[in-house]
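Re: the 498-residue chain
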Amino acid sequence: MGGIARDGTSGVATTVVRRHERGSSEEKPVEAMVLVIVWSSDEPARVGEVAVLPASGAPLILGRGPGATRERRVAFFRQRPGTLTERPPLEASAISRRQLRFYPEHDGPRVERIGQCDLELNGARCDAATLRPGDVLALSGELVLYCARRPALIPPSRLFTSKQWGAFGEPDSLGIIGESPALWRLREMLQFAAMAEGHTLLLGQSGTGKELAARAIHQLSSRTGKFVSRNAATLPPGLIDAELFGNAKNYPNPGMAERPGLVGEASGGTLFLDEIGELSLELQAHLLRVLDAGEYQRLGDVLARRSTFCLVAATNRDPKLLKHDVLARFVGRVELPRLVDRREDAPLLARHLLLRAAERSPDLAGHFIGRTDSGYAYPRLDARLVVHLLQRSYTANVRELDALLWRSMAVSAGDHLELPPDCLEVRESRPPDAPPSAPPDATLPTPARAEATPEAIRSALARHEGRVADAARELGLSSRYALYRLVKKHGIDIDERP
């Protein structure tokens, strides 16, 4: 750990680290209010760094440079499991050396502007305020900070080793992005599921990265076979045995090629079935025998076969809606955090999504990428867009974030991504003392309705700007694939607008 015990460091961070260094890692981590750098005009590579605010003691000063010798200053760290690596003082040229003063108070730290930069709290200008988790502080186009309550020291990882971490703020060895405690807990759970070698059920809303998590479990396991992926909602009810278990040569018709089926193809590896909750209870029963002992029979075969596969299934529904004896076969369950549960990761995700977009479509996205003198690539985001990303009520999570960035690229005239006009109307505005609003519960089943008319389908698609999953939810359909079937049936173009 870097020099974390020097004068000027938050007392909370120092106390926790010293306790950890004395071998008290079994104690419950101390929770504290932290400031997370989510955007910096002059130092974009510092996104993700945190400063721990004390619950008691003398006020702290945030500003440019080291400040006076005896002055208690806000210090930023790179926070990872079991470690706090101290970072240099802020260098933003437009921020005063004494810009903000933080007073520890019982109800939450109080911030006061004492420097030249204007202060905004959740998009509204102010000179002083009491901070709550979820608040966003912005210093007039120079720095944006996100307030969160989290452990002052993330517990050391038992299973996910530092060799797998990757560089700070970058994708790890599994392609997972995020520095929030929620993401470090997820990494640990994925490693545990991989080592347990049992069937695993992934739970989470649409867009939380369930297939990425399934691939991570496969990659972390000792399995040497293939990773086979299929959306369970696309399995035809009358052909599910053929799809899962395959068929013998010349069965059911002469000249029919032999097929191993999904279970046979995944032998020695992992079979990922997304949206398993879309299978009827009757169809789920077809999995019972093969989940117990790996035994199955190809259509047209006389003898049974065995497949040493691991099933990783995913659903965005309540797991209790699965067939009870199928649910019992999943020894591991991993719940993926929503984006609203790790809002501070949104700028890191936005960076990755824009770098990927620039690689695939350089003419469209390339000029929104900047580079520091050291070569660090960063997204050119307007500060207002960053504030919106941190306050948005996401329902489609990373998928929704990606779509928002593309809409921003379409309307931004300069080299900085701006807040799309449609976001100005839906922007969350909550008082500082109110908790962040929760998104609708996407795990509950939608009540059945009569089949939607072509006009209703077109209107829903238009209202949701072509987002099929959202339109399907509005229409009361079981999944986006049910809407795809209706779209095909009625000959509707997804991009149509009424």
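The CA atoms of residues 82 and 156 lie 4 Å apart.
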